[in-house]
User: What shape does this take?
Amino acid sequence: MAEQPRSPEARKADVLAKLHAPVADAWVATADGDEPYLVPLTAAWCEERVVLATDASSPTARNLTAHGRARVALGATRDVVLIDATLEKTIPVADAGEIGEAYAAQNDWDPRTAGDSYVFLLLRPERIQAWREVNELAGRTLMRNGTWLV
Amino acid sequence: MAEQPRSPEARKADVLAKLHAPVADAWVATADGDEPYLVPLTAAWCEERVVLATDASSPTARNLTAHGRARVALGATRDVVLIDATLEKTIPVADAGEIGEAYAAQNDWDPRTAGDSYVFLLLRPERIQAWREVNELAGRTLMRNGTWLV
Assistant: This one.
């Protein structure tokens, strides 16, 4: 039996808890010319941006650099957070400053030790949706055009 | 501390167990013109095909119909199965026959009761990869060009 739908405020709190969690594992979808790509990456949440770290030559980094768009999922398939986001900035790990500090503090690895080819990818969320079961599909949009609705 | 890497045979057994599991929740990435799409869907595994069920008007069904390609993830971000797949067939739920029986038997809902706009999407796996931690990245490819390597 499904629980009662959460309030928008409770959903936003759950979204932020997932984004702030130690080792926030995310599924990151990007695309290149109708071809989808999808990998798990560890995310951080810093200054209202989703921060990813990967090799600059990886398909995820290349697709984001070329086309600027990602769709990021956190949580489980029946406790979903989906974030449509745009690449704001790519920062080589050697130049990452506070972003690098924040990422390493939240997670269980430090991309700044992974080699010069690694970069931080800062994604600006444009739309955020969160739902558990069918009874939460209504009201699932918590951010639109980069602005929290709650 | 990471465990020892699993053998290829053990990984294949784990992949098939995930695909055969009751309520196999999958992350399904598709794309349209450099724009990624990603949603959770419940999968079934029938005759070596990944079977999805969704509304024919959904972005996933439209992207697959237009471009034929999906990348499907099962498991958790540190116990990953990734499947690159091609759309083989789209079957209206009313005409699904054995596929519809198999899907309903494996899962906790029956798309044949969801309305005439629902379809089954049969995806043919071309590449299957499975890994847990970094020490399993070597040897992660279990299927290539539609053929099991183990």
